[in-house]
Amino acid sequence: MTDQAYPFAGCVASTASSAFAGQSVALDSAWLLGALVIALVVAAVVLAGRRYLIERGGGTVDCGLRKPAGATPDQPASHRGRWRLGIAAYRLDELRWYSAFGLTIRPAHTFGRGQLSVVSRRRPDAAEAISLGPGRVIVQCRLAESDSTGPDLPEAAMVELALAESALTGLLAWLEAAPPGSQFGWAS
After folding, report:
1. What pTM did the predictor assign?
2. Which residues pair with residue 164 across a beta bridge?
3. 91 and 39 in contact (C-beta within 8 Å)?
4. Which of 13, 73, 153, 170 sits between 20 and 30 A of 57, alpha carbons compared?
5. Where are the alpha helices (DSSP H) in the chain?
């Protein structure tokens, strides 16, 4: 038999192969979507587990951190650096700040109790309220000599912390409740 006897034989084969190719693309897309969903679930579980490990010691609050590099108080808030969301953990003589989306359980910044002092407080402006969420109070803190650690924190630096009103009360109480002699290194 010749090809002239079956003129549409090639069309049937090409239609079948294009239908198979369409199913293959749909199947590949389904696998890709499934892998993406699994990756998102794993990432959420890792972040939740990390947060659990950080919070199991107690004394933690949600806290935004901004390091205003070379900023002056008369500059608009939007020109003072970007806010980083995180968790602050109170320990005996230090405040540890962890990034909300980090992978390690080591603090990104550590501030000594004796060297951290609150300079001022204010309400966030409209742009800050969008990134920080409602009900936050921003406190500007001065860090005294070499008791703060973390990248890009020079001596006598200023940082801003964004806390809920109740968390600010806790921060102020923690700062004032230092054991006697702790500023001299006598308390243990």
Report:
1. 0.68
2. 136
3. no
4. 153
5. 9-55, 126-132, 165-176
Residue 36 Cα to chain centre, angstroms: 22
Identify the residue whose tokens are 């990390």: 50
Instruction: Provide DSSP, 45-82.
Output: HHHHHHHHHHHTTS-EEEEEEE--TT--TTS-GGGS--
Long-range Cβ pairs for the range 5-13 (8 Å, 24+): none
3-state secondary structure of 116: strand
What dotted CATH number matches 58-181? 2.30.29
SS3 23: helix
77-110 per-position pLDDT tens digit: 555 688 999 999 998 888 999 998 888 889 999 9
Instruction: Report domain extents, the chain.
Output: 7-56, 58-181
Q: Is the pLDDT of residue 18 over 50?
A: yes
pLDDT band, residue 115 (cuts 50/70/90): confident
- Answer positive or negative: Cα dihedral of 171, 174, 177, 180: negative
Task: Say how many C-beta atoms besides its own lie within 10 A of residue 175's C-beta.
Answer: 16
Q: What are phi and psi of 16, to 5 degrees?
A: -65, -40
pLDDT band at 1 (very low <50, low <70, confident <90, very high): low
